[in-house]
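Researcher: Next entry in the queue.
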Amino acid sequence: MTKKKFIILLILFTNIFGNCYSENEPYSKLENDIAKNLRCLICQGQSIYDSNSEFALSMRVYIKDQINSGYSESQIYKILVKKYGQWIVYDPGYSKKTFLLWVIPILFFLLGGAIIYIKIYKKKKI
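Model: Structure for this entry, 126 residues:
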């Protein structure tokens, strides 16, 4: 087989199998986005999107059912936060309970910048 025929066959097979996989995607983009932002309560450090636990699979089905029932993304998050607590969401949003979660990194960034500025200023002064 010549090199040219091999490359053509390789391209054809890649396109055939690539199209078959993409058409059989079982979840919509919205379902995947929600699942990526939810923490699996069984698997440490994995989202529901990445996990294969029974909990994650049942949550994927639950999310799909809620979307098919007409619930919006924010409504689904509210239901799940009410049921499982704020910890289930990777991006918890702004509230009185999460105020320090959002403010402390900014304070550390400003403090670090101030320390670096003072160190550089002292070196120039000497």
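Model: The domain at 27-92 is CATH 1.10.8.640 (Helicase, Ruva Protein; domain 3).
Researcher: Noted, moving on.
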